[in-house]
Amino acid sequence: MKDSLSIPTKVLGITTRKTPWGEESKTWDRFKMGIHEPLINLHTPADLLRQITSISVANPVSMLRSLRVTETSPEMD
User: Fold this and answer.
1) Distance (Å, rounded) from C-alpha 38 to C-alpha 62?
2) 49: domain range?
3) Residue 27: CATH number of its domain
4) What is the pTM (predicted TM-score) of this model?
């Protein structure tokens, strides 16, 4: 792994009443979910990148994969 960029965590929240009707105590539940999205740059051959991105991930984790192939100059090797 050459370098990694951490995208800010997106926090989603829901505030809902605890009781199904509004006549009793006015209590609330607050739920939050944080979405973490790391961006990883790999400098490796394209065939190896295809093998890495073909790995299956168990549920409930979802992963967005994209592959961008760029040409390298001889002085970068």
Assistant:
1) 13
2) 3-76
3) 3.30.70.600
4) 0.42
